[in-house]
Each structure stands twice: as C-alpha cells, then as structure tokens.
Amino acid sequence: MDITNTQRHLIRRRLEWTLTAFFLLAALFLIVVYVAAPSIYTSTLLLNSSPADRYPLAATLFMVAILVFITILLIGIQQHWRWLFWLLLIAFGAMILEIPATILQLNGFLPNPYPTWYSLCRMGVSILAILIAVWMFSIYRRYGVWAQGKKNI
C-alpha cells in the first residue's frame, strides 16, 4: 500500500506534537517538583542540604541543565534529527524497567529515596513513554524514521 505525502506529513506532525507535549510537560513537572520538593534534587545529587538553603546552587544548576537538554531535544524533534528518533525510541522503550523497579521500591524490596507520590508519578510517566515508544516503532515499521518514507536498499 502506497502512502501519500499528505498522510506521512500528518503522521509526522502528530508524532512531533506528541513528543513536544511530552517534553513540555516534563519540563513543567521538573519545575513544579523543584519548587514543591527541592529535597528530591538534593538527594539525587547526594548533597547535604541545610534548612536555611532550601534551593542549593548545585540543585538549581542541575535543573537548568536538564531544561537546556529538553530544549535541545525539542529543537531536534522539530528538525527531525534521525539519530534523535532512535535515541528517543531506545530511551522510551527502556523505561519499561522503571515499572518493576518502582513496584519493588514501593513494596520495600529496594530502597526508595523518594516520596511515594514522586515514585508513582515517575511510573506514570514511564507508562506513557512506553506507549509512545510502541507507537514510534510502529511508525518506523510502516513509514520509516519520522514517517519520512522508507529508503530502498
């Protein structure tokens, strides 16, 4: 079955919008967690935080670095960087490991340095990322990378 350029363009646009929305929501979540519970960042960075220093410089720089990384990803999504398609597909697919890890943490079999709400949010994001990875893989199988058509070998 031959697919028209209009159909490929529509699929590509849907993928762009889905990934853009995912990363914008991730950035928003990053900021909300930083404002609501900066101790998550300090524990992730293995910092000793004092009550007087609610937002340590290292945690702030870490958050800014992640926001810069997300910005680069958003540019790559808009530019259809081929290598980024594969990186996202692998990274999102690997997030399936987050689900059993979180379940083991919540049941006490593994140490859980994070609040329960944060662990559950991470698991929810992982489920969403896995669904996106499955969709990206099906797009690749039918239409090629970024739905730009398959190359004849």
Describe the structure.
The protein is mainly α. Helices cover 73% and strands 0% of the residues. The mean pLDDT is 89.
Topology record:
Layout lengths: L4 H32 L2 H6 L12 H23 L2 H13 L3 H9 L9 H28 L10
Weakly predicted, low-confidence segments? none
H/E element sequence? HHHHHH
Proportion in helices: over 70%
Radius of gyration: 19 Å
Shape: elongated
Q: How many H/I helices?
A: 6
> What is the tally of beta strands?
0
User: Structural class of the helices, strands and pairings?
Assistant: mainly alpha
The domain tally reads: 1
How is the biggest beta sheet arranged? none
Beta-strand percent range: under 5%
Mean pLDDT: 89
Task: Report how far the terminal alpha carbons are from each other.
Answer: 18 Å
Question: Key terms for this structure?
Answer:
153 residues; mainly alpha; 6 helices
Brief rundown of the structure:
The protein is 73% helix and 0% strand. With 153 residues, the chain is mainly alpha-helical.
